[in-house]
UniProtKB/TrEMBL annotation:
InterPro entries: A-D-PHexomutase_a/b/a-I, A-D-PHexomutase_a/b/a-I/II/III, A-D-PHexomutase_a/b/a-II, A-D-PHexomutase_a/b/a-III, A-D-PHexomutase_C, A-D-PHexomutase_C_sf, Alpha-D-phosphohexomutase_SF. NCBIfam families: PRK09542.1 (NF007088). Keywords: Isomerase, Magnesium, Metal-binding, Phosphoprotein. This is Phosphomannomutase/phosphoglucomutase. It comes from Kitasatospora arboriphila.
């Protein structure tokens, strides 16, 4: 095996341990990371998966063997690793497979200041270097570093308190009324970060599954799947909470449930946070702030941003594209339909915890319940993302384009997949990069029109 394309994805490394990779691979990725980036020091952290400590330490040893001083921060959320990368100005490696099942693990890599490392920004070169060290049987041997290269050091550092303090400094939480918040950590890293961040607030936390357990004994740590929100929804209703928060496995994404136990769409959260970040930028003297949104977020988001006199910028799906656009436009904030939220003052990196603090501040700063506070962002009916297994993705997409692209008054673009828009509706059809799937998102002004459009497009896709 000398092809790592199934292990090294567009944005990260991710696969089954030990079937697809193990500590010897992690050591090689550490050495390659340092060599490709020319890094003299790196910061490394890991989540609660059973394989994470061994893989993280092997990566650190590989990096040190190639001359880098390694700062190990131990158990952390992904956004805590980004904090360490930003505050220490070091490249970073986070060992996590996010919401994937327990047998998976992976690495999210970044340059100094939490700048992304993806297939176009170094990950391809890292993969190719590791591939060059693979034998035909799949074993990997890292060659000795160049003569004269002194090995780097390994040291440990605590960053949780600094991470919490930095987040709290970015949101005005003064004057909050007391709130009761149910939090489902899904046995992931939210159980590590939530107590540290929320301890200073007038918030009664009702904890759910805070025990760090990478075997995920209660449910998958993937709140994007509705079945994984059921426990939180029931708890919110049971205890009369003002809202519920659900974090994914590495706690970089946060989903919100209102006081009725109903999910609040990530587009509504994007619009709410955008309003607050635009206001904060204006208060600092910025006349026309920019907000990034991917092309699957609701039309509500660019409408809210435009209504506030700010500039909405539409991007492809994926954190590397969001971060690149944020850097290019100096955007104050960015949001995705998948509940990734990006902040300029957090090194343009994504942090669900900071988005959660904005929601708490907005809710606690007035008397309405969350459902009423978010009602003004509920302007359209949305299908959510619907996946269809399709062998000929390009062919089916072409059929959909032929059926809708020539309609009068319709616009078509291919920024990311196929997007077709009418006066009061739109849909996007995208092929998965890693699976034989087509992903459909539909939005319209009323539920009946949305359902009609959804079913018609799916009929073509699944024919």
């Amino acid at each position: 095996m000398r092809d790592l394309s199934q292990l090294v994805k567009a944005y990260d490394v991710r696969g089954v341990v030990p079937d697809q990779w193990d500590a010897s691979y992690a050591r090689a990725f550490g050495a390659a990371f340092v060599q490709v980036l020319g890094a003299s020091a790196v910061v490394v952290g890991h989540d609660m998966r059973p394989s994470s400590p061994e893989l993280s330490r092997a990566f650190a040893e590989g990096a040190a063997a190639y001359g880098a001083d390694v700062v190990e921060i131990g158990l952390c959320s992904t956004d805590q690793l980004y904090y360490a990368s930003g505050s220490l100005d070091l490249p970073g490696a986070m060992f996590t497979a996010s919401h994937n099942p327990a047998q998976y693990n992976g690495i999210k890599l970044c340059k100094a200041g939490a700048a992304p490392v993806g297939q176009d920004t170094g990950l391809t070169e890292i993969r190719e270097l590791v591939e060059s060290w693979l034998a035909e049987d799949g074993t990997v041997t890292v060659p000795a570093a160049a003569e004269g290269t002194a090995p780097g050091t390994l040291s440990s550092r605590e960053t949780l308190d600094g991470y919490a303090a930095h987040l709290l400094s970015l949101v005005d939480l003064s004057g909050m009324r007391p709130l009761k918040v149910a939090v489902d950590a899904g046995n992931g890293m939210g159980g590590h970060t939530v107590p540290a961040v929320l301890a200073a607030l007038p918030v009664e936390v009702v904890p759910m599954y805070f025990e760090l357990d990478g075997t995920f004994p209660n449910h998958e740590a993937n709140p994007l799947d509705p079945k994984n929100l059921v426990d939180l929804q029931a708890k919110v209703r049971e205890v009369g909470a003002d809202l519920g928060l659900a974090f994914d496995g590495d706690a970089d994404r946060c989903f919100v449930v209102d006081e009725r136990g109903e999910p609040v769409s990530p587009s509504a959260i994007t619009a709410l946070v955008a309003e607050r970040e635009i206001a904060r930028a204006r208060a600092a003297g910025e006349e026309k702030p920019t907000v990034i949104h991917n092309l699957i977020t609701s039309w509500t988001v660019p409408q809210v941003v435009t209504d506030l006199g700010a500039v909405p910028v539409r991007t492809r799906v994926g954190h590397s594209f969001i971060k690149e656009e944020m850097a290019r436009t100096d955007a104050v904030f960015g949001g995705e339909h998948s509940a990734h939220y990006y902040f300029r003052d957090f090194w343009r990196a994504d942090t669900g915890m900071l988005a959660a603090l904005h929601v708490l501040a907005a809710l606690g700063g007035q008397e309405q319940p969350l459902s009423q506070l978010c009602a003004r962002y509920d302007r359209y009916a949305a299908s959510g993302e619907i996946n269809s297994t399709v062998a000929d993705q390009a062919g089916r997409t072409a059929e959909v384009r032929a059926a809708y692209g020539a309609l009068e008054g319709v616009t078509v673009d291919e920024l990311d997949g196929l997007t077709v828009a009418g006066a009061d509706w739109w849909f996007n059809l995208r092929a998965s990069n890693t699976e034989p799937l087509l992903r459909l998102n539909v939005e319209a002004e009323d539920p009946a029109r949305m359902a009609e459009l959804r079913d018609a497009v799916l009929a073509i896709v699944r024919a």
